[in-house]
Design a protein that fits this description.
The N and C termini lie far apart (about 60 Å). The protein is about 40% helix and about 10% strand.
């Protein structure tokens, strides 16, 4: 093939085509690594009679037998970890105690979002939402997006659909008007600040409303010294009344309100003490990250690259199953990832498949088929995040000697909810210096 004329302008490249070529390269390397692995043969007992030689065609030549390898040589020909780490994961049931505990934890967490399907709860939620305001703002934004898309040359599809605009309007109202973030609750008697005294057992009424633990605070005013209880309610009925909490309460209540206005929602659990919401966009055919605490929309890199948070597991739960979505939120595992040592990866796949089967058993065949298509589409999306992260890493290596243009990298916002001391204690006050590995504090 003739060399390209250096005087001609360089050709433009399609990022999607480059991604496909990179994935094909990974598959080829994986097959080559598998083909080079030595095949072990079972050793048979020696026999006093020689085994008959296999019949050969006259045109075939007998290949010389290689000399037997010593144990020292065999050790040098064992497959390396790099040749095995990219093999497809075969789901395996949990066997060891740690894996069984993690499975039970995920099964317990998966029950919460199923309560969003309670018709009485959804009706109660609709009574507290200003529907006229929400739908009016959504209609205005939807028309604006349609006008912007139609003005493009050539015309394009609007970035967000009407239902997406409904959730966006609901997010703004929920953050700015409805719910309150609690650091230390004020004194119920005089309104003075309080100090934390630790945990106290919940009362029977608090337990009935889903309070697994209760924080106890004491008023700092000498003439008052009253006590204030802060139950961490897990029941959405109670949250509709109290309208206050931290990350867990915010994500729980907001997810249910999204379901009440017709959205398909997921409640996302993070092993490092955080929770948020995902909403499915029919317009973009993918799950959208939504964090009510931060009023964040479609910004999954917020936690790692904005807060400086390191994470190991991010699992999304819904009435339709469970999915490990860590790759959506941790793009650079070497920089922002933590060890995933609660169970082998094959066990995690088995557990999420188990939850999906449990939640989808009573659905119709058409719905199950649709959900399987969505699962495959999402898996391609998550793999694409990994491929793009690898490609970006290669670009940084090749262009490390060249200064990056100003403003090329988007600076993500730091966390705004919670006090500064609380954010620092949780390791969420921005990018930490290398080597700072403080564990997160409980209390999301």
């Amino acid at each position: 093939m003739a060399d390209q004329d250096p005087r001609q302008p360089p050709q433009s490249f399609d990022p999607h085509e480059l991604t496909q070529q990179f994935e094909q390269l990974l598959r080829t390397r994986r097959l080559n690594a598998l083909s080079q692995r030595p095949r072990s043969r079972p050793t048979s007992q020696s026999s006093p009679y020689p085994s008959p030689a296999p019949s050969r065609h006259p045109s075939q030549q007998a290949a010389p037998h290689p000399p037997p390898r010593s144990s020292h040589d065999t050790q040098h020909h064992l497959p390396s970890y790099s040749s095995l780490r990219n093999l497809p994961k075969v789901p395996s049931p949990p066997q060891d105690p740690g894996s069984l505990r993690f499975r039970n934890q995920l099964l317990t967490l998966s029950v919460g979002p199923t309560k969003y399907e309670n018709p009485g709860l959804l009706d109660e939620a609709l009574t507290v939402i200003p529907l006229d305001r929400i739908y009016g703002e959504a209609e205005d934004e939807s028309q604006l997006l349609q006008a912007e898309a139609a003005s493009m040359n050539p015309p394009k599809k609007p970035e967000w659909g009407y239902q997406d605009c409904v959730i966006r309007a609901l997010l703004k109202w929920f953050k700015r008007t409805f719910f309150t973030f609690v650091n230390n609750p004020p004194c119920p008697v005089c309104g003075s600040p309080t100090t934390a005294l630790g945990m106290t057992p919940p009362t029977p009424d608090e337990s009935a409303r889903g309070a697994g633990r209760v924080e106890l605070y004491k008023c700092t005013a000498n003439e008052c010294r009253a006590f204030e209880r802060f139950p961490r309610y897990g029941d959405v009925w109670a949250l509709l009344q109290t309208r206050r909490g931290r990350c867990g309460e915010w994500a729980n209540c907001f997810s249910m309100l999204c379901r009440a206005v017709g959205g398909r929602v997921r409640w996302v659990w993070n092993a490092e003490d955080h929770a948020w919401t995902e909403v499915y966009s029919e317009q973009q055919k993918r799950w959208i990250h939504v964090d009510a605490c931060e009023e964040a929309w479609d910004n999954p890199r917020l936690y790692t690259e904005g807060w400086g948070k390191r994470m190991s597991y991010c699992v999304a739960f819904s009435a339709e199953g469970a999915t490990d979505v860590t790759r959506r939120y941790v793009r650079d595992a070497s920089k922002h990832g933590l060890d995933r040592n609660r169970c082998p990866e094959e066990v995690l796949v088995w557990v999420t498949d188990e939850i999906k089967k449990l939640r989808r058993d009573n659905t119709s065949k058409e719905d199950r088929r649709r959900l399987v298509v969505e699962d495959h589409r999402e898996e391609r999306e998550l793999r694409g995040h990994v491929v793009r992260a690898l490609a970006a890493g290669l670009d940084r290596l090749t262009l490390s000697s060249q200064p990056s243009p100003a403003g090329e990298e988007q600076k993500l916002p730091e966390r705004i909810s919670g006090s500064q001391a609380w954010r620092e204690a949780r390791g969420e006050a921005g990018n930490r210096p290398p080597g700072d590995e403080r564990p997160p504090r409980e209390g999301h």
